[in-house]
Amino acid sequence: MAMTNGKTLVTMIAAGNREIQDFLDADQRETPYLVIDLKVAERQFRRLTDAFRETQIFYAVKANPQPMLIRRLARLGSSFDVASPAEIDLCLSEGADASRLSYGNTIKKASDIKYAYQRGVRMFVFDSEAELHKLAENAPGSAVFCRLLAGSAGAQWPLSRKFGCSPDMAVRLLEQARDLGLKPIGVSFHVGSQQLDPTRWEPSVSQAARVFRELADKGIHLTLLNCGGGFPTGYQVPVAPIEAYAEAINSAVERHFGPYRPSLAIEPGRFVAADTGVLRAQVVLVSQKSYDDDHRWVYLDIGRFGGLAETEGEAIQYRLVTARDGEPTGPVVLAGPTCDSVDILYEKAPYRLPLDLKPGDYVDILGTGAYTTTYSSVGFNGFAPLATFCIGENA
Ligand SMILES: *Cc1c(COP(=O)(O)O)cnc(C)c1O
């Protein structure tokens, strides 16, 4: 067992995962690093397939593009939501078939569309007329779906405004897609990441149904409703179970589409990847700002630039575990190690850590399997990008 200042690490098992805890205890690797357990990804994927019957699942690769994770999901029959040539190459080389890739980024260079098409990708998203022309020219005959604007109320990491168009525009553009020789197949939307309210899908499902009906009147029969991602993980407090999301989406589809039920797709990222990972960091410094202010500042060897970008606005509040848990605690401001003043993780959120916390102590950050390694800078201030170790390959 690893020792920290003479104390054995007998803490709460990280994310309830014995194997990850064993890995963390086994060796004193240089921090910070992320450990992900592929078995957890498999469990999460199976929870999705159980909850969402007859729904095609496109794992959103950007959440965590670890090759072994992609390989595991490909073996389980996952499809993939990709956003760039590099993500396409990754999925293909890890065993996914091109027919299972959806180019889900609404902002693509013509040369990237052409590359995707050459590699066999035949499903693309768009939300503008200019993008449609690029697709018609560089991916002729491909299946295309239009992304609708969606509100992000209830989401802890909103995605609104930047993506999607109005339903009226979607109707016109999908008609135009047909005229340009593309195959208009449906619509998509994304209600914001870490969406805590299962009822937030309904307004978009309702809009989508309207788009389907208006196009049916013009002789265009859409078949695909892509409900995006957003399914949350319980960082500090439990969230509604995935079944509640499936139930809310399915009943919204039933209500608004009636007997004309479309094929369903979802694009989960965080739900699959977040719980796979624990990030081990180390305390670099504990200090205070004046002799009469005993508010502690705790500086870790990871911060906003090392992979914890989702602490922006303190949006995602991770659970922290230390070897001194159970001892008396006090409030802290948590910050990263770089020479940039935005590199503060939590200042308003009421984080408390043991009063005895010292430089060299480990701090384990739970639920960090999604949106961490990909957000890590290439070496701001000379700090190395966040390393990943995978376990559970053969289980
Ligand atoms: C990022 C992204 C997702 C995944 O979102 P989560 O909230 O992680 O589930 C799904 N679809 C698209 C188009 C995305 O950009």
Automatic annotation (TrEMBL):
<dbReference type="GO" id="GO:0004586">
    <property type="term" value="F:ornithine decarboxylase activity"/>
</dbReference>
<dbReference type="InterPro" id="IPR022644">
    <property type="entry name" value="De-COase2_N"/>
</dbReference>
<keyword id="KW-0210">Decarboxylase</keyword>
<dbReference type="InterPro" id="IPR009006">
    <property type="entry name" value="Ala_racemase/Decarboxylase_C"/>
</dbReference>
<feature type="modified residue" description="N6-(pyridoxal phosphate)lysine">
    <location>
        <position position="62"/>
    </location>
</feature>
<feature type="domain" description="Orn/DAP/Arg decarboxylase 2 N-terminal">
    <location>
        <begin position="42"/>
        <end position="274"/>
    </location>
</feature>
<comment type="similarity">
    <text>Belongs to the Orn/Lys/Arg decarboxylase class-II family.</text>
</comment>
<dbReference type="GO" id="GO:0005737">
    <property type="term" value="C:cytoplasm"/>
</dbReference>
<keyword id="KW-0456">Lyase</keyword>
<protein>
    <recommendedName>
        <fullName>ornithine decarboxylase</fullName>
        <ecNumber>4.1.1.17</ecNumber>
    </recommendedName>
</protein>
<dbReference type="Pfam" id="PF02784">
    <property type="entry name" value="Orn_Arg_deC_N"/>
</dbReference>
<keyword id="KW-0663">Pyridoxal phosphate</keyword>
<feature type="active site" description="Proton donor">
    <location>
        <position position="339"/>
    </location>
</feature>
<dbReference type="GO" id="GO:0033387">
    <property type="term" value="P:putrescine biosynthetic process from arginine, via ornithine"/>
</dbReference>
<dbReference type="InterPro" id="IPR002433">
    <property type="entry name" value="Orn_de-COase"/>
</dbReference>
<comment type="pathway">
    <text>Amine and polyamine biosynthesis; putrescine biosynthesis via L-ornithine pathway; putrescine from L-ornithine: step 1/1.</text>
</comment>
<dbReference type="InterPro" id="IPR029066">
    <property type="entry name" value="PLP-binding_barrel"/>
</dbReference>
<dbReference type="InterPro" id="IPR000183">
    <property type="entry name" value="Orn/DAP/Arg_de-COase"/>
</dbReference>
<dbReference type="InterPro" id="IPR022653">
    <property type="entry name" value="De-COase2_pyr-phos_BS"/>
</dbReference>
